[in-house]
Amino acid sequence: LHAIDFYNRSNTGMTAALASVVEQCQRLDKGAAQYAIVSVGYVDVAVPPGTAIETTPITDNQLLRPWRYSPHYASACQRLISNCGTSVVHVHGTWMYPQLAAVREAKAGQIPVILTNHGHLEQWALENKGLLNAWKKRAYLAGMDWALFGKVDIFHAITLLNRDMLHKLFPWARVECIPNSIDLDAIDAAAGGFRRSGNVEPYILFVGRLAPQKGVDLLIQAFGVADVPPETKLLLVGPVESESYATYLHRLISVSPRRARIEWRGPVWDEAEKVRLMTNAWIMAVPSRSEALGLVNLEASACRTPTITTFSTGLSDWADGGGILIEPNVAVLEQAITTAMAWDDAERAQRG
Hints:
Elements: E1 2-3, H1 12-29, E2 36-40, E3 52-56, H2 73-83, E4 89-92, H3 97-108, E5 113-116, H4 123-127, H5 131-143, E6 154-157, H6 160-169, E7 175-177, H7 184-191, E8 203-207, H8 216-225, E9 233-237, H9 243-254, E10 262-266, H10 271-280, E11 283-286, H11 295-302, E12 307-310, E13 324-326, H12 330-341, H13 345-351
Parallel strand pairs: 1-2, 1-4, 2-3, 4-5, 5-6, 6-7, 8-9, 8-11, 9-10, 11-12, 12-13
């Protein structure tokens, strides 16, 4: 049983990671196991074939809605655990009610629990979203130390950075580090034989949630001052997570020396369209301040497109494979963009 708060597009990377885990496990066990997902609210993405899903409505209580509280979530977990012979409950996320409810019901049924925090327990995520948010998260960690975290059998870390943070927060815990991965065959199938066109104007591509931790503000500022060919564009592709942050990004674009070369395209949900955008990009830029792993880097790599990304993504050897690995700040990102745009076709292809 996979327990998640939202299994939909608004939960982007976490939803995709859960689907990938199920699909890869299905191939490995060749039908020996059955899988179910329990989620709050609506579902607007595909569910892995043969996987049951149950959704429960989110509360109307405006105080509890931000916690994604659903009064029927716990009973749904209990029913799936008892009626389906559930042997493992895999909980995704950290901060919301569904994670607490799922762990409680699993322990009531004496079922082992794996918890994947998906990067929620990273230093930046805990400390750099304002003093109030940092205090709330620290208080929540303390309050849930036994009610939630103390009942987890295995903490799943996606990167070594995440593993070290978990050991720091929960020194008594068993932690297993298993990176996220992607299906290369699925990427190739989505590409449908498409290959990069040399006739496309060069562009730098960002794909992901337009959220502070993704460092989009750094990218807009760095693109404005980097030494790049005059026809170069910056394409921003992804859903808005925070309206206040989106307003800030629009303001940065409006004062950028290259504002006419920046395109805000919104989200692209079609997999083939996303793969073609990645394939045709000269380079992907993912300057994340905090990230579970940065699956978009792996997707771009599968499209043979090198990426600029940060040490915060946990891809500590990324530069060895042709990418550029930096700290998330404007000056360093500016230099990385300048370097990448100076490659000739042969070097860009070799790095890709």
